[in-house]
Amino acid sequence: MSFDEEDSIEHTLLVVREVSVFKIPPRSTSGGYKCGEWLQSDKIWSGRLRVVSCKDRCEIRLEDPNSGELFAACFIHPGQRESSVEPALDSSRYFVLKIEDGNGKHAFIGLGFNERNEAFDFNVALSDHEKHVRRENEKETGETSDSDSHIDIHPAVNHRLKEGETIRINVKHKPSSGTSMLSAAGLSGSGKPKTLSLAPPPSGAGKIRSPLPPPPNDPVAARLASTSQGVGQRAPKENMKQTNPSTYLSQLEVCL
């Protein structure tokens, strides 16, 4: 393959069916272009857009969708993307292209996409071309070593079992931690139960209580209660009287 034939090889990176071209006013400020200043009446053409890679040069071609006739072309040389394609300041769907007639004359036109994803693909296509040119230049200058460009690919190993093959797995039994549970329950690991000691019942301090309370209005119980209260309290000596035991017993017999 000759050098001329290599230059004639083209790779189409992107095709957009319909785009709009506008006649734009001169740049008002040094900051950039604003598509809001372009009027709908300034639309001069609509048709197909193609991004083509021609070795180290990228071309943006505006063509008639039916006949393929070229309306205008924007040439992007290496490192000159910013001067050839400039995005609008107020919208991501509009750009300004520097078109050339091949005789040294150039002009600036406005380019508009109908959808944002088309404008996004347009930027990606231009970036892919720049990356491709950069890699080719690195290969020619030898900046990248052979070890970096060479990728060692090992053949894939088939780990599937053939018919009739089996897999044997040895599983070691781990002793269960039953000792800790037995010790927590009060049992030793040897299996011998420990003697469980029960707390003694609360002492009654020698007091015997009647299981049932005495019936109401019981004269005997009333006398016993008044007697116990009198014993617990000390009256003055001049008011204290000694009770005859025989008299107290005779009263109990009469009551019973």
Describe the structure.
With 256 residues, this protein is α+β, with helices and mostly antiparallel strands. It has helices at residues 3-7, 81-84, 116-141, 146-149, 178-184, 219-232, 245-255; strands spanning 11-23, 43-54, 57-63, 70-76, 85-87, 94-100, 106-113. The chain has a domain at 3-141: Pleckstrin-homology domain (PH domain)/Phosphotyrosine-binding domain (PTB) (PH-domain like, Roll). The protein is built from 7 helices and 7 strands; from the N terminus they run H-E-E-E-E-H-E-E-E-H-H-H-H-H. The protein has a 7-stranded antiparallel beta sheet. A hairpin with a 6-residue loop joins strand 5 (85-87) and strand 6 (94-100). The protein is elongated and about 140 Å long. The protein starts with a helix and ends with a helix. Residues 1-6 and 235-240 have low confidence and may be disordered.
Can you tell me the CATH superfamily of the domain at 3-141? Pleckstrin-homology domain (PH domain)/Phosphotyrosine-binding domain (PTB)
Low-confidence stretches: 1-6, 235-240
**CA-based shape:** elongated
Helix/strand order: HEEEEHEEEHHHHH
Radius of gyration, CA atoms, in whole angstroms: 55 Å
Q: What is the share of helical residues?
A: 25-40%
Features of the shown structure:
28% helix; PH-domain like; alpha+beta; NECAP PHear domain-containing protein; PH-like_dom_sf; 256 residues; NECAP_PHear
